[in-house]
């Protein structure tokens, strides 16, 4: 396993800790805080915690640099982990046994949940799909919803990434509030397919 030196200069010397994960120079990773400790950081008491957290969604991508232009460059997620590794092809059923892959992890503001993983099989490369990715959703489709600081800017930046496809203009949506007599929930945003056809909803919560 090979570490790509993108986290910080100190990582190349011994180890570094980013978002509660420690990455050694050989690419090995260990958590530096327990699940309970991480929940406590988010203000969740042990007595209130349910047994499961939605930790991360990982996508298999064609061109990782192009995907980073979308998820990191346009949408503002922060890259915190970048390695080259070999796959078994069994537990994670992608690529041939022993295939080489590059995996990056990106996070938003939370140190524990809501991460995005991007993986590209680099050798041997996966065959290109015969047809472009579907542009309509159906059972089994995935929609990733991101809360952003400036929907107009993030939607425009996402639309400018090569291979991305906007489904329509940025718009205002109003949803019923949670609970009786609660105010409506107002969000401005857009929907876009990323360069690999992952459906993404970008929205900004309005006052």
Note down, in words, how this protein is organized.
The protein has 2 domains: 2-42 and 51-123, 2,3-Dihydroxybiphenyl 1,2-Dioxygenase, domain 1 (Roll); 143-205. The chain is built from 3 helices and 13 strands. The chain is globular and about 55 Å long. Strands 1-6-7-8-5 form a 5-stranded mixed sheet, covered by helices on one side. Residues 1-32 have low confidence and may be disordered. α2 runs antiparallel to α3 (151-159). β7 and β8 form a beta hairpin. It is mainly β.
Question: Gist?
Answer:
The protein is mostly beta strands and 207 residues long. It is 13% helix and 35% strand. A hairpin with a 2-residue loop joins β2 and β3 (21-24).
List the helices and strands and how they pair.
Blueprint: E1 2-3, E2 15-18, E3 21-24, E4 29-31, H1 35-41, E5 56-60, H2 64-74, E6 78-86, E7 100-107, E8 115-123, E9 143-147, H3 151-159, E10 165-166, E11 171-175, E12 185-193, E13 199-205
Parallel strand pairs: 5-8, 9-13
Antiparallel strand pairs: 1-6, 2-3, 3-4, 6-7, 7-8, 10-12, 11-12, 12-13
Query: What number of structural domains do the residues give?
Result: 2
Overall body shape: globular
Give the count of helical stretches: 3
What is the CATH class name of the largest domain?
Alpha Beta
* CATH architectural category of the largest domain: Roll
Can you give the helix content as a percent range?
A: 10-25%
Largest sheet: 5 strands, mixed
Strand residue content: 25-35%
Radius of gyration: 19 Å
Mean pLDDT: 83
CATH level-3 fold name of the largest domain: 2,3-Dihydroxybiphenyl 1,2-Dioxygenase, domain 1
Strand order across the biggest sheet?
1-6-7-8-5
How far is the first residue's CA from the last residue's CA?
47 Å
Give me the strand/helix succession. EEEEHEHEEEEHEEEE
Estimated structural class? mainly beta
Overall strand count:
13
Q: Stretches where pLDDT falls below 50 for ≥5 residues?
A: 1-32
């Amino acid at each position: 396993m090979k570490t790509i030196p993108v986290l910080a200069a100190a990582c190349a010397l011994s180890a570094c800790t980013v978002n509660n994960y420690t990455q050694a120079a050989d690419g090995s990773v260990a958590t530096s805080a327990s699940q309970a400790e991480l929940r406590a950081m988010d203000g969740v008491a042990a007595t209130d915690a349910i047994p499961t957290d939605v930790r991360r969604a990982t996508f298999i991508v064609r061109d990782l640099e192009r995907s980073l232009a979308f998820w990191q460059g346009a949408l503002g997620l922060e890259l915190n982990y970048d390695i080259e590794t070999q796959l078994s092809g069994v537990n994670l059923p992608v690529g041939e046994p022993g295939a080489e892959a590059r995996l990056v992890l990106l996070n938003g503001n939370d140190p524990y949940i809501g991460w995005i993983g991007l993986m590209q099989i680099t050798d041997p490369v996966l065959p290109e799909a015969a047809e472009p990715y579907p542009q309509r959703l159906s059972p089994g489709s995935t929609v990733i919803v991101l809360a952003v600081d400036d929907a107009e800017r993030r939607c425009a930046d996402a639309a400018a990434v090569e291979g991305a496809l906007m489904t329509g203009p940025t718009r205002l949506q109003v949803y019923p509030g949670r609970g009786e007599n609660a105010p409506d929930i107002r969000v401005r945003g857009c929907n876009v397919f990323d360069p690999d056809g992952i459906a993404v909803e970008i929205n900004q919560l309005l006052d």
